[in-house]
Design goal:
21% helix; globular; Metallo-beta-lactamase, Chain A
Amino acid sequence: MPRSIENAPTHHTAYGYRNVPPMAKQTSPGFSFMWRRVKGSFIRPDIPPGHNIAEEIALRNYVDLKEQQTLTWLGHSAFLLKLQGRTILLDPWLTDTASPLPVGPKRFVPPGISIQNLPPIDVLVISHSHYDHLDVSTLKNLADKDKIQVLVPLGLKGFLKDLGYQHPQELDWQQSASVHGLNFTSLPAIHFSNRGLNDHNETLWCSWVMESNHQSVFYAGDTAYSETLFNNIREKIGPVNTAIVPIGAYEPAGVMMPVHTTPEQGLQVGIDLGARNIVACHWGTIELSDEPHFEPPVRFLAHAQKLDLAKDSAWVMKIGETRLLHHKL
């Protein structure tokens, strides 16, 4: 049943939502692309030394810095963010398969911290409905669902309620919420949503900025690149301390780049936002596309060097690594 969109924002449609600015025309992935993903789920690549940290070491390092403002990469797009003594969990996919079926994209590196060893979560933040960002198995197994504050884009509140979360809030683009003294703002991204064949773009997708007295952290979720979009976001929120940006899932270009960034484009998102630190994610954990598994960070760091960015401004973290966040300038 179509809904009335009279006086609604331009990204609302009668049946859901759309990108503003619009995404580029996308090539159909076709059978061969999908077959490569199925095969890839059974083939574990050789993991480079130092790509991830043993969980017991990751936990020790996290605990050692527990009183600080920190960022911990759990793998793919999942992070723990510590701001003002509060623990924020971003897009947690911490199980084996990012699919409604047992056959599908499969994790080839364990999460930096497993579900049962996560610290108590104060705020859960979700960017969109895709299985590698909104994972039912992970969400079902998080402790204290009656206490966790949840922030989701429009259309996902009921989904989280059905999983047992008692405090979900839906935000439209440009809307903000104050939670535990922190400010969270939902912002645009160029992507799409679905969990099945018949729910295309029925729920919203977004990026987020999370702000405390001493930090401003942008989290892109999944997005394609648009100079207009990210410069507009900077005009709205000002420069950020840290930008977490996707750098993987970009080949073949016709299929992937209308909805994802290349490593160079991901870096540019952080530059457009005036970020002091630009953190790479959405790589090194699962095979979603055709580029070599460990190519994205090489291109990301090479482009940072080419642009002569400040030393250590482009972060390629190890899975399980915890780093201190710099205070606002």
